[in-house]
Specification:
Layout: H1 3-32, H2 35-65, H3 83-110, H4 114-138
This protein binds fe (ii) ion (2 copies).
Residues 48, 51-52, 94, 97, 127, 130 line the site of one fe (ii) ion (FE2).
């Protein structure tokens, strides 16, 4: 397999695991939040997690389509109960995801996969919207 393609698949696998771990964290964090601000954060996470599921599923399929194998590496979420800490954690992920998809879109372009580049750019757009919604709740 060509080196550039191998690096792209490796990167997509990293992105897929970041999404899978975020799905687990968002479900866990949304479940424990209480009170009125907690409720707002819970609603946001439950809405955004559906986008992350779509991203993870697409990435897993694409890794296989490119000749790779998805390698799942899960992490146990931190025992956080404070809505501000939950939002800070989510903001960190969304920022990393935007940077990751920007880099991956360039790698997709480099191997000539224009469809993948465009999908990854759309993912960066989703994560940017998530980031902005999180920043709004953080105030
Ligand atoms: Fe995502
Ligand atoms: Fe997101």
């Amino acid at each position: 397999m060509e080196e550039k393609l191998r690096e792209l698949i490796e990167g997509l696998n990293k992105d897929m695991n970041a999404e899978l771990n975020t799905i687990i964290r968002y479900i866990r964090h949304a479940a424990v939040l209480k009170g009125i601000p907690g409720h707002e954060v819970r609603e946001l996470l439950q809405k955004e997690v559906m986008d992350e599921v779509k991203h993870a599923m697409y990435l897993a399929d694409k890794i296989v389509a490119l000749g790779g194998t998805p390698k799942v590496e899960l992490e146990t979420p931190a025992e956080v109960f404070d809505w501000r800490e939950v939002l800070q954690d989510a903001l960190k992920f969304e920022l990393e995801a935007i940077a990751g998809y920007r880099e991956r879109a360039q790698q997709a372009e480099a191997v000539g996969d224009i469809g993948l580049r465009s999908t990854l750019e759309a993912f960066a757009e989703d994560e940017t919207r998530h980031k902005e919604e999180i920043e709004r709740l953080l105030g």
